[in-house]
Amino acid sequence: CLGKATKVCDLLTNKDKTYRAVCRLGVSTDTQDMTGQILQRGDFSRVTQERLKEVLESFIGDQLQVPPMYSALKINGKKLYELAREGKVIERKARDIEVFDIKVESIDLPEVTMTVHCSKGTYIRTLCNDIGERLGCHGCMKSLLRVRVAGFDLEHALTLSQIQSKVDEGCFDMVMPVDGVFENLPAVHTASDADKLVRNGNKIPAVLTDYLKHSADSDIRYRVYNHEGIFVGVYSYLDETGEFKPVKIFME
What we know:
single chain; alpha+beta; six-stranded antiparallel sheet; five-stranded mixed sheet; 15 strands
Protein backbone atom coordinates (compact mmCIF):
# COMPACT_ATOMS: atom_id res chain seq x y z
CA CYS A 1 0.00 0.00 0.00
CA LEU A 2 1.46 3.32 -1.12
CA GLY A 3 0.68 6.87 -0.06
CA LYS A 4 -2.93 7.44 0.92
CA ALA A 5 -3.62 3.77 0.17
CA THR A 6 -1.96 2.84 3.47
CA LYS A 7 -5.40 3.56 4.92
CA VAL A 8 -6.50 0.32 3.28
CA CYS A 9 -4.32 -1.88 5.50
CA ASP A 10 -6.65 -2.30 8.46
CA LEU A 11 -9.57 -3.01 6.11
CA LEU A 12 -7.66 -5.83 4.42
CA THR A 13 -6.97 -7.67 7.67
CA ASN A 14 -10.68 -8.27 8.14
CA LYS A 15 -11.05 -10.18 4.88
CA ASP A 16 -11.58 -13.88 4.38
CA LYS A 17 -8.59 -15.97 3.31
CA THR A 18 -7.79 -19.15 1.42
CA TYR A 19 -4.97 -21.50 2.39
CA ARG A 20 -3.42 -24.62 0.94
CA ALA A 21 -2.42 -26.82 3.86
CA VAL A 22 -1.00 -30.28 4.43
CA CYS A 23 -2.51 -32.01 7.44
CA ARG A 24 -0.31 -34.73 8.94
CA LEU A 25 -2.43 -37.41 10.58
CA GLY A 26 -1.21 -39.73 13.32
CA VAL A 27 0.60 -37.20 15.49
CA SER A 28 -0.20 -34.20 17.70
CA THR A 29 2.28 -31.57 18.89
CA ASP A 30 2.36 -28.73 21.41
CA THR A 31 2.46 -26.13 18.61
CA GLN A 32 -0.10 -27.99 16.46
CA ASP A 33 2.41 -28.11 13.61
CA MET A 34 5.44 -30.27 12.80
CA THR A 35 7.90 -27.82 14.38
CA GLY A 36 6.68 -28.63 17.87
CA GLN A 37 7.27 -31.35 20.41
CA ILE A 38 5.32 -34.53 19.75
CA LEU A 39 2.66 -35.12 22.38
CA GLN A 40 0.78 -38.13 21.06
CA ARG A 41 0.78 -40.62 18.22
CA GLY A 42 -2.19 -42.43 16.77
CA ASP A 43 -3.15 -45.05 14.20
CA PHE A 44 -4.22 -43.40 10.95
CA SER A 45 -4.24 -46.59 8.86
CA ARG A 46 -7.97 -47.11 9.30
CA VAL A 47 -8.94 -43.66 8.03
CA THR A 48 -10.98 -44.08 4.85
CA GLN A 49 -11.70 -41.47 2.21
CA GLU A 50 -15.37 -41.62 3.12
CA ARG A 51 -14.71 -41.00 6.80
CA LEU A 52 -12.24 -38.22 6.00
CA LYS A 53 -14.77 -36.50 3.73
CA GLU A 54 -17.44 -36.79 6.43
CA VAL A 55 -15.19 -35.23 9.06
CA LEU A 56 -14.02 -32.39 6.81
CA GLU A 57 -17.59 -31.52 5.90
CA SER A 58 -18.43 -31.33 9.61
CA PHE A 59 -16.04 -28.38 9.92
CA ILE A 60 -17.74 -26.33 7.18
CA GLY A 61 -19.91 -23.52 8.49
CA ASP A 62 -19.93 -21.50 11.70
CA GLN A 63 -17.54 -22.97 14.25
CA LEU A 64 -16.17 -22.30 17.72
CA GLN A 65 -12.38 -22.63 17.71
CA VAL A 66 -10.05 -22.50 20.71
CA PRO A 67 -6.89 -20.53 19.76
CA PRO A 68 -3.60 -22.44 20.18
CA MET A 69 -1.24 -21.63 23.03
CA TYR A 70 1.48 -20.90 20.48
CA SER A 71 -0.19 -17.78 19.09
CA ALA A 72 0.27 -14.02 19.37
CA LEU A 73 -3.05 -13.46 21.13
CA LYS A 74 -2.69 -11.55 24.38
CA ILE A 75 -4.21 -12.47 27.73
CA ASN A 76 -3.68 -10.06 30.59
CA GLY A 77 -1.12 -8.20 28.49
CA LYS A 78 1.03 -11.22 27.73
CA LYS A 79 1.21 -13.11 24.45
CA LEU A 80 0.11 -16.73 24.59
CA TYR A 81 3.28 -18.04 22.96
CA GLU A 82 5.36 -16.34 25.68
CA LEU A 83 3.38 -18.23 28.32
CA ALA A 84 3.68 -21.44 26.31
CA ARG A 85 7.47 -21.09 26.21
CA GLU A 86 7.40 -20.84 29.98
CA GLY A 87 5.63 -24.17 30.06
CA LYS A 88 2.28 -22.66 31.02
CA VAL A 89 -1.05 -23.68 29.56
CA ILE A 90 -4.00 -21.44 30.36
CA GLU A 91 -7.66 -21.61 29.50
CA ARG A 92 -8.60 -19.84 26.25
CA LYS A 93 -12.08 -18.83 25.21
CA ALA A 94 -13.38 -20.35 22.01
CA ARG A 95 -13.84 -17.80 19.23
CA ASP A 96 -16.42 -17.62 16.46
CA ILE A 97 -14.99 -18.45 13.05
CA GLU A 98 -16.45 -19.61 9.76
CA VAL A 99 -15.09 -22.18 7.34
CA PHE A 100 -16.68 -21.51 3.97
CA ASP A 101 -15.24 -24.52 2.16
CA ILE A 102 -12.68 -27.31 2.42
CA LYS A 103 -11.50 -29.04 -0.75
CA VAL A 104 -9.27 -32.13 -0.64
CA GLU A 105 -6.48 -31.79 -3.20
CA SER A 106 -4.83 -35.14 -2.52
CA ILE A 107 -4.67 -37.96 0.02
CA ASP A 108 -1.41 -39.80 0.62
CA LEU A 109 -1.74 -41.08 4.18
CA PRO A 110 -0.66 -39.94 6.64
CA GLU A 111 -0.82 -36.64 4.70
CA VAL A 112 -3.92 -34.88 3.43
CA THR A 113 -3.49 -31.82 1.21
CA MET A 114 -6.47 -29.49 1.29
CA THR A 115 -7.57 -25.98 0.36
CA VAL A 116 -9.42 -24.11 3.09
CA HIS A 117 -11.50 -20.95 2.54
CA CYS A 118 -12.13 -19.39 5.93
CA SER A 119 -12.88 -16.22 7.86
CA LYS A 120 -10.44 -13.92 9.58
CA GLY A 121 -9.09 -15.35 12.84
CA THR A 122 -9.12 -19.00 11.76
CA TYR A 123 -6.07 -21.01 12.80
CA ILE A 124 -5.34 -23.70 10.22
CA ARG A 125 -2.98 -25.40 12.69
CA THR A 126 -5.87 -25.80 15.10
CA LEU A 127 -8.14 -27.00 12.31
CA CYS A 128 -5.63 -29.74 11.43
CA ASN A 129 -5.35 -30.70 15.09
CA ASP A 130 -9.13 -30.83 15.47
CA ILE A 131 -9.56 -32.87 12.28
CA GLY A 132 -7.11 -35.44 13.67
CA GLU A 133 -8.93 -35.56 17.00
CA ARG A 134 -12.30 -36.04 15.33
CA LEU A 135 -10.83 -38.84 13.23
CA GLY A 136 -9.50 -40.41 16.42
CA CYS A 137 -5.89 -40.56 15.26
CA HIS A 138 -4.50 -37.09 16.16
CA GLY A 139 -3.23 -34.60 13.61
CA CYS A 140 -1.17 -31.46 13.08
CA MET A 141 -0.19 -29.10 10.27
CA LYS A 142 2.82 -30.01 8.14
CA SER A 143 2.84 -27.01 5.78
CA LEU A 144 0.80 -23.92 4.99
CA LEU A 145 0.58 -21.56 2.03
CA ARG A 146 -1.80 -18.61 1.88
CA VAL A 147 -3.07 -18.48 -1.69
CA ARG A 148 -5.70 -15.74 -1.46
CA VAL A 149 -6.76 -12.79 0.69
CA ALA A 150 -10.03 -11.19 -0.39
CA GLY A 151 -9.52 -10.37 -4.10
CA PHE A 152 -5.74 -10.90 -4.08
CA ASP A 153 -4.44 -14.32 -5.11
CA LEU A 154 -1.05 -15.96 -5.37
CA GLU A 155 -1.37 -16.44 -9.13
CA HIS A 156 -1.15 -12.68 -9.69
CA ALA A 157 1.34 -11.96 -6.91
CA LEU A 158 4.79 -10.50 -7.59
CA THR A 159 7.99 -10.90 -5.62
CA LEU A 160 9.83 -7.78 -4.45
CA SER A 161 12.56 -8.43 -7.01
CA GLN A 162 9.99 -8.64 -9.82
CA ILE A 163 8.49 -5.33 -8.68
CA GLN A 164 11.96 -3.76 -8.57
CA SER A 165 12.65 -4.91 -12.12
CA LYS A 166 9.42 -3.34 -13.33
CA VAL A 167 10.21 -0.06 -11.56
CA ASP A 168 13.72 -0.03 -13.08
CA GLU A 169 12.06 -0.36 -16.49
CA GLY A 170 9.70 2.52 -15.70
CA CYS A 171 6.71 0.18 -15.73
CA PHE A 172 4.05 0.63 -13.06
CA ASP A 173 1.25 -1.54 -14.46
CA MET A 174 1.31 -3.62 -11.27
CA VAL A 175 0.00 -0.69 -9.21
CA MET A 176 -3.78 -0.78 -8.91
CA PRO A 177 -6.04 2.14 -7.97
CA VAL A 178 -7.30 2.24 -4.39
CA ASP A 179 -10.92 1.55 -5.33
CA GLY A 180 -9.78 -1.64 -7.05
CA VAL A 181 -9.48 -3.16 -3.59
CA PHE A 182 -13.20 -2.62 -3.08
CA GLU A 183 -14.55 -3.93 -6.39
CA ASN A 184 -16.78 -6.34 -4.50
CA LEU A 185 -18.63 -3.44 -2.86
CA PRO A 186 -21.59 -1.80 -4.63
CA ALA A 187 -20.83 1.63 -6.09
CA VAL A 188 -22.74 4.82 -5.28
CA HIS A 189 -22.27 8.16 -7.06
CA THR A 190 -23.11 11.48 -5.45
CA ALA A 191 -24.76 14.50 -7.04
CA SER A 192 -22.89 17.79 -7.40
CA ASP A 193 -25.06 19.19 -4.58
CA ALA A 194 -23.19 16.88 -2.20
CA ASP A 195 -19.71 18.19 -3.09
CA LYS A 196 -19.27 20.19 0.12
CA LEU A 197 -20.37 17.26 2.28
CA VAL A 198 -17.98 14.97 0.40
CA ARG A 199 -15.02 17.35 0.79
CA ASN A 200 -15.63 17.78 4.51
CA GLY A 201 -16.06 14.08 5.21
CA ASN A 202 -19.64 14.53 6.38
CA LYS A 203 -22.55 12.14 6.17
CA ILE A 204 -24.29 12.19 2.79
CA PRO A 205 -28.09 11.97 2.50
CA ALA A 206 -29.06 9.13 0.19
CA VAL A 207 -31.29 11.54 -1.76
CA LEU A 208 -28.10 13.23 -3.02
CA THR A 209 -26.87 9.97 -4.58
CA ASP A 210 -27.94 7.45 -7.20
CA TYR A 211 -28.49 4.94 -4.43
CA LEU A 212 -31.33 2.45 -4.78
CA LYS A 213 -32.46 0.93 -1.51
CA HIS A 214 -32.03 -2.78 -0.93
CA SER A 215 -32.82 -4.99 2.03
CA ALA A 216 -30.29 -5.32 4.87
CA ASP A 217 -28.32 -2.36 3.53
CA SER A 218 -27.17 -1.39 7.02
CA ASP A 219 -24.84 -4.41 6.95
CA ILE A 220 -23.30 -3.46 3.58
CA ARG A 221 -20.45 -1.10 2.82
CA TYR A 222 -20.27 1.00 -0.34
CA ARG A 223 -17.58 2.59 -2.48
CA VAL A 224 -18.65 6.16 -3.04
CA TYR A 225 -17.66 8.43 -5.96
CA ASN A 226 -18.32 12.14 -6.40
CA HIS A 227 -20.26 13.49 -9.38
CA GLU A 228 -17.02 13.62 -11.43
CA GLY A 229 -16.42 9.92 -10.90
CA ILE A 230 -13.53 10.42 -8.47
CA PHE A 231 -13.31 7.77 -5.73
CA VAL A 232 -14.16 9.30 -2.35
CA GLY A 233 -14.01 6.38 0.04
CA VAL A 234 -15.83 3.54 1.75
CA TYR A 235 -19.14 4.33 3.45
CA SER A 236 -21.74 2.46 5.45
CA TYR A 237 -25.47 3.12 5.11
CA LEU A 238 -27.51 4.33 8.10
CA ASP A 239 -30.97 2.96 7.53
CA GLU A 240 -32.50 4.93 10.39
CA THR A 241 -31.47 8.32 8.93
CA GLY A 242 -31.18 7.48 5.24
CA GLU A 243 -27.57 8.66 5.11
CA PHE A 244 -24.17 7.35 4.11
CA LYS A 245 -21.56 7.54 6.88
CA PRO A 246 -17.81 7.60 6.08
CA VAL A 247 -15.85 4.52 7.12
CA LYS A 248 -12.60 5.48 5.38
CA ILE A 249 -11.97 8.53 3.19
CA PHE A 250 -9.33 8.40 0.44
CA MET A 251 -10.03 11.52 -1.60
CA GLU A 252 -7.66 14.40 -0.79
